Amino acid sequence: MVTKNESVYPSVETLAQSPGRVRPWLRWGLTALLAAAALGMLFADAWAGLGTRAFLFQRGQTFVTIFLGIFIEAVPFLLAGSLVSGFIAVFMDQGMIERFLPKRALPAALAGSLMGMVFPVCECGVVPVTRRLYEKGLPMSIGVAFLLAAPVINPIVILSTQAAFGWGPVLWGRIGFTILVAMLVGLIFHLAKPGELLLPAVNDAHCDAVHPGHAAPAAKPPVGVRVRQSLFTAGDDFIDMARYLIAGSMLAAGMQTLVPQSALLAIGQGPVISVVAMQALAFVLSICSTVDAFVALAFSGTFTVGSILAFLTFGPMVDIKSALMFLGVFQRRIVLYLIVLPLLLTLFIGVFWNLNVGL
Question: CA-CA distance, 56 to 108, in Å (whole number)?
């Protein structure tokens, strides 16, 4: 005879083996990939002594070092975002979103751009959180604004920027321009239908949350079971997003290995070209928003303030790894819009600052 707990509340084993869960071989495959990269870095010096192949092995070592640096820096924040998304999936419902978030276009976009103060995640962790919020019925404009603004509008990044630049125009400009760009892009997507933006699986869950059936709500499992469900969901989200993170980190490492930073920095002196150069640098470097202020500080003596602001605004919104991670939530053409729109807006802001404000 089946007990009550077995019939109503799924066991941990059932959750792990349910359809759609990440298969164990994928976890082992990702682990093996990272182990191979680490071994390659460790033994590259020995391999480099093979004469004519020294140059290639040196480049390979540089690639592996940069890749591991980007990946290891981003993994803790992706894990934190996945944990948040797991608890959102189990403990949050559509009613909470309707109670606490506005429906009108402008207040909704503003609320989305400030949600990073509640969910302090970087550009890696914000993607799984946004996906789960969409599956709970979050309006399109709020989700887009949150996705773009949260990597900057959170306490950790604000404090790191203040530590690097003090209470000056760079700090306030970064906060203000990030909110402005996120709101504008969010307003653009306000009238878009979810099916036009989201992947089919995410859109189906969004529609189910917004238009629930008339069946009576099921009894909620005990808190302990729900916590285990949250952790399993977080693990699935982490593995799902990790593939995009690995691909993006490898692409960013490849570009840094093949394209010298000096080639970008040599052209960054004018009011326009300096902004373009720093935007390109931010996209290529793919630095976490919690530490990018200290990288920007190294360029503050030779680059214009407008280009520094463009680096600190555009980089956390879109870089190589986060752009690939967007593919886990949005359709491909929407990902292109989410790259181009912040790029043009931050370019305009940076050039306007250089031509009209200066220091």
Answer: 52
Low pLDDT (below 50) residues in the chain: 1-22, 42, 45-48, 51-52, 216
**Among 314, 311, 336, which residue's Cα sits nearest to residue 326?**
336
The whole-angstrom separation of Cα 289 and Cα 285 is 11
User: Coil, strand or helix: which one is 24?
Assistant: helix
User: How far is residue 186's CA from residue 27's CA, in Å, rounded to a whole number?
Assistant: 35
Single-letter amino acid code for the residue at 158: I
226 by Cβ neighbours in 10 Å (0-12 / 13-18 / 19+) ranks as middle
Which token pair is 304? Answer: 């214009």
Tell me the backbone φ, ψ of residue 198, rounded to 5 degrees: -90, 155
| Predicted local confidence at residue 350, as pLDDT | 93
Side-chain half-sphere exposure of 349, counting CA atoms within 13 A: 26
CA dist 158 and 176 (Å) reads 12
Q: What is the pLDDT of residue 241?
A: 67
- Given the structure tokens 């931010």, which residue do they identify? 282
pLDDT at 291: 73
In angstroms and rounded to an integer, the radius of gyration of the C-alpha atoms of the chain is 22
Residue environment code for 275-287, b if the CB has 16+ CB neighbours within 10 A, otherwise e: bbbbbbbbbbbbb
Report the pLDDT value the prediction gives residue 19, as an integer from 0 to 100: 38
pLDDT for the residue 219: 59
DSSP state letters, 29-98? HHHHHHHHHHHHHHHHHHHTTSGGGHHHHHHHHHHHHHHHHHHHHHHHHHHHHHHHHHHHHHH--HHHHH
Model pTM score = 0.71
Termini Cα distance of the chain: 76
Placement of tokens 């040599």 in the chain: 266
Instruction: Please give the distance of CA 46 from its chain centroid, rounded to a whole number.
Output: 37
330 three-state secondary structure: strand
